[in-house]
Amino acid sequence: MYPTLVDFVGNTPLVKVQRLVNPATNSVVLAKLEGNNPAGSVKDRPALYMIQKAQERGDINPGDTLIEATSGNTGIALAMAASLMGYKMKLIMPNNMSMERKASMAAYGAELIEVTKEQGMEGARDLAEKMVQAGEGIMLDQFANPDNPLAHYHSTGPEIWHATQGQVTHFVSAMGTTGTIMGTSMYLKEQNPNIQIVGVQPEDGAAIPGIRRWPKEYMPKIYENTRVDRIIDMSQSLAEDTMRAMAKEEGIFAGVSSGGAMAAALKVAQEVENATIVTIVCDRGDRYLSTGVFNPIK
């Protein structure tokens, strides 16, 4: 029996960060390389899981049109999963997202609908709702769908627990839809309630692709304050600097939100003793090259 693409979502590597960690610390920082998923990000997990569960319930059937608002990674993952499982996909996103993200969605056969940078993700979510109300398709709604965090409860959390042999003390994750941090927290806290869950959000004025500081009325419905022990506000410059350092000093080629999460994990490592800190490297850096964030050679 040969495996299909579905079988290669998850079970991503967990690797030790070697040079970025302050040598004076006795804590370990581990990076979970979610760019190794088939469509290149941690969002492969909830995208596939949400479609599978909706199909099992009879909410959707192959051939249906799915509609979703996305800043990029979820859209790419949903486009991949939709093509794999026989669905049509309409994705709404702000027009300032990278060309690589847009091209990837189109390559999987998705229809891309853009809102302005000023409208942002809030505008994309509003338009998706209007399209659903107009009967143009069905929305999985990553922001309110409990299958989003459950994907991580059943995969990301157990993988981290087993890979660290239960030694994980801190879990650090950037927060966008918050599905990753919610589901992973749920699982890890069941195993050991003393594990510290650290969320990362942009500081005021920062625009870090993939993570958000949501207005109260747009806060994802799946988010629960009690599942996060600490939130670190991240500057754009530190997130970008750390992202570049990850590539140059660790060989980990990732996006800006991963840089922000890593910077937060390194901060935690300097504050604690004998900790095992796991952070999510949510995607690959190649989908940000056209933005110039990696300072390409002229």
TrEMBL record:
Signal sequence, start to end: none
Domain of life: Bacteria
UniProtKB keywords: Amino-acid biosynthesis, Cysteine biosynthesis, Pyridoxal phosphate, Transferase
Transferase in keyword set: yes
PROSITE patterns: CYS_SYNTHASE
UniProt KW Cell membrane keyword: no
Enzyme class: transferase
InterPro entries noted in UniProt: Cys_synth, Cys_Synth/Cystath_Beta-Synth, CysM, P-phosphate_BS, TrpB-like_PALP, TrpB-like_PALP_sf
CC cofactor: pyridoxal 5'-phosphate
Pfam name, any one: PALP
Ranges where the Tryptophan synthase beta chain-like PALP domain occurs: 7-283
Molecular function GO labels: cysteine synthase activity
Pathway where it operates: Amino-acid biosynthesis; L-cysteine biosynthesis; L-cysteine from L-serine: step 2/2
EC number: 2.5.1.47
Catalytic activity, reaction form: O-acetyl-L-serine + hydrogen sulfide = L-cysteine + acetate
Record family assignment: Belongs to the cysteine synthase/cystathionine beta-synthase family.
Protein name, per record: Cysteine synthase
Species in which this protein is naturally found: Thiomicrorhabdus marina
Gene, per the UniProt record: cysM
